[in-house]
Structure formats: C-alpha cells, structure tokens
Amino acid sequence: MILLDGKKTATDIREDIKNEVAELVKQYKRPPHLVAVLVGNDPASLAYVKSKERLAKKAGFTSTILHFDKAVSESDLLKTIDSLNRDATVDGYIVQLPLPKHIDEQKIIMAIDPDKDVDGFHPVNLGKMIAQLPGFLPATPHGIMELMKRYKIQTEGKNVLIIGRSLIVGRPLSILMSQKRPGGNATVTLAHSRTQHIKQLSQQADVIVTALGKPHFLTEDMVKEDVVVIDAGINSIEDSGTKSGYKLVGDADFENVSRKASYITPVPGGVGPMTIAMLLKNTLEAYKLNMRKNAKRTL
After folding, report:
1. 3-state secondary structure (DSSP) of residue 256
2. Which domains does the chain have, with CATH numbers?
3. Which of 3, 21, 264, 287 suits a disulfide with 91, CB 3.0-4.6 Å?
4. For 164-186, what is each residue's pLDDT tens digit?
5. Angle at Cα 43 formed by Cα 82 and Cα 64, nearest 5°?
6. Are the CB atoms for 178 and 188 separated by under 8 Å?
7. Would you call 52 a catalytic residue per the annotation?
8. Distance CA 207, CA 227 (A)
9. Do residues 39 and 96 touch, judged by C-beta distance below 8 A?
C-alpha cells in the first residue's frame, strides 16, 4: 500500500507557486491578492479560512479575510461581492460555504465575477470545464486530479466509482475523470444516496472516490484487492483519547481498507491540503489575468 501524501505534494506545489510569485512581483510590483468572505462563526469554516490565509501568505500572497456576523443581510453581502468584483487590487476571492439559511447561496455565487471565482463554482467556469476551455476548475476535484497525476495513477479505461454527487466534489470530478485528459479517460459511475446495490459497484471499481461526509462508510468488504481509494470525506467523531475530545476521520475505514488498497489517501493529510494548493494555483492564474487586463487599460 502506498500512501497518497497530499500534505507533502501540496507543499511542493506551494513552493513552486512561491517561486513563480517572487518572479512575477518583479514585473507587476505587487503580489497576488486573495480574499476570503466568511459569514458566521462556524469553527470548521473559521479554521479552514485561517489555514487558507496562512498558507497564502506563506506562498507570497496578500491574503484578506472579510468576516461578517451570521445575521448579515443578503443585500449587504451582495454589495460586498460587487465591491470585490470592481476592486482591481483583488485578484481572486472565495465565499466560504455553507452560508446561513436566509442567504441564497446560488444568488451569491452567480454574483461573483467568473474571472475572480477561484473556487471554480460559477456556472461560467463549470461550463468551461465541461467544454474543456480555459477556466478555473473547482479546487477539490482539481486537487484530486493533480494528486493522482503526481503519483502516476493510471485511470485510462479503468472503472471509477465516485460516491457523492455534490457540485463541490462529485459531479465536477465525474466530468473531469471521464474527459480525454491526463487523469481522465475513465469509465465513471456517480453514486449517491439513492443508488442501489452500491456494494456491488464498489467491489468492481478500480478507483473509488468518497465524498459523502459519513465516517467509515467505505468498509473492507466493499473493495477489491489493489483498489485506489481517494477519501475526500472529513468527519469529526468523538475520541476521549485526544485533547480536544474528537478526531478527524474520512469516509473510508482507513485501517481496514488500506489492507487491500494499492494507493489510499489519509484523513487528514490527503485531499484537504491539495484543495488549498489548487485554490492558490487558481488565484495565481487569476492574478496573471488581472494584471494583463490592467495593462491593456493603461495603453
């Protein structure tokens, strides 16, 4: 079994980004600027945004967090989005999801300038992904593709089972892995809560990606020998043996599934760091696009 070390791989990617930023700053006179919009005080979201900020700064970016009370109105949030769209010093930004129930998430996403949508959630970027045109890929699927590419995992002609159909992971990844591209050319099955006989499907799969949010859902008896397991699930479960009283686990029963797997991602330290690395990569591309636009305006 080979561990797909997302933490190390992401560190390598961020180092490459840092070196490129250092060179670009000589030309453009300022670093890339990434903004995160956070609503409320959900501990997981706050920790995740803080991690993004820290790693962005480590890569040579300017990073800003706009933190709003959970009672912020939808109209005020839309005003912030409009301001970020018009601010030439902001290259890319994210709106941390989920948002409070009184705010229409789709309306917020639709208001984001696609050229600054470094999460890759805007329909324009999703459409470009489907058509295989240049655009921003959703960060988690992009990270999964990049991790498999760097470990030279063969997907062409393989049976891939993706468990979970969210717009953040499952659906875009199913499209990417079925396309004619590196890490693609696979025969993809997208399973979800209504899928019947999921155990039969998983036992036939060469590659399984879990993105359910159900701890230890994928068990040893559901996988075949030499399967590749990409665990995109992040779940908090009680653990009296830890200082915090809980620990993070994935959707796969790592201890037992890893006995059969040829490759498997750990949780934490697998897909999560790759997501942030791809967010920074998208922001770097948005920065270069923004700088080219600004140069044209001054001509």
Report:
1. helix
2. 28-113 (3.40.50.10860), 139-271 (3.40.50.720)
3. 287
4. 999 999 999 999 999 999 999 99
5. 35
6. yes
7. yes
8. 6
9. yes
